[in-house]
Amino acid sequence: MAGTEALVKTLDFQLDVQSDNERLLYDATLESRSVYNKTIRLAKEGVDWDAIPNRVADDAGLVKNTTQRVVAKALGAMENYYEYDDFGQPSHTKDGTYPLRTNYEEGYNLSLTDSGDVAFRISAKPYKHVKGVLEGDDAHLDILKTALGNDEWKIGTAEALFRNENAELHVNVTNTETTVRDKQDSRTVIGVDVNEDNVALTALSESGVEDSLVIDFPEIKFERHRYFTMRKRVQNAGKDSIHDTLEGREERFVRDRLHKVSRHIVEWGQQFEKPCIVFEDLKEMRGSIDYGTRMN
Fold it and tell me: Dihedral angle at the C-alpha atoms of 21, 26, 27, 32, nearest 10 degrees?
């Protein structure tokens, strides 16, 4: 019998922090790393997993339910480690930031403003909030705005994190009326190999290679180099504000292009029977595949 799962999407946004306390959020992600490391260490020491959440929460400087979400993710990593024959043991000695995992309406909240923006409030520490508006891809914003006013969508956990020193919020939303096929019931596997200036796709079924495609995006590499040159010049001139503006423009450009590429991948894959898209290193297969079709 074919299985189904709920349709879950992860929407990623950049945070325009307007409460002038972005550092508070950064410090919270450092504390999140501490919670993660302590959880992994206790699990390795043989502490009862049921006792770990309260033990870690007693010393954490985060909102309690946020601490519990980070602990759950850490224990999930340990569970995967044991499930896959002790391969890839999680580290408990890493430093730096770790995503702040929070529950909707407990650790973070979202609302629509009169101007049509999506406002956020993140409880970075107990009784201390980071506020502002979300920025990002229009398609993701449209889905989130729909979810805020439609019972068909359910807003779930989110992760606040820093990527390339920029604050982001990744929000999970679930469509309660739509399901997707379980990956185990797929009939065609579409392998995706991401390269510097293109994406190579190969559709494989029980009969062998069904088709292949290469989607080129050389403009991303060109624009990244162009923005790197401009940022270097303004940085040398001491114009930090312009440097940050250019960095934001570059990131928006790349996200837009990659979003279009992802749509091409999905559209191409829909021609095959029960397709499942997987991302993996396909370098061992390249020599035996004739990529006859290219798309710019």
Answer: 140
**Pick from 126, 159, 180: which residue ends a domain?**
180
Residue that is last in its domain, among 157, 180, 203 = 180
Name the pTM for this structure: 0.70
Tell me 287's DSSP state. G
DSSP label at residue 14 = E
- DSSP assignments along 199-246, one per residue: EEEEEEETTEEEEEEEEE-HHHHHHHHHHHHHHHHHHHTT-HHHHHHH
pLDDT at 291 over 50: no
Quick one: tokens of 281? 């290193």
Domain co-membership, 34 together with 172: yes
Distance (Å) of CA 158 to CA 109, 116, 174, 216: 10, 21, 12, 32
121 closest CA partner among 14, 19, 13, 33: 19
Handedness of CA 22, 23, 25, 29 (dihedral sign): positive
Residue 21: count of CB within 10 angstroms of its CB: 16
The H or E element that residue 167 is part of is strand 166-181
Structure tokens belonging to residue 76:
């999930």
pLDDT tens-digit readout, 4-52? 677 888 999 999 999 999 999 999 999 999 999 999 999 999 999 999 9
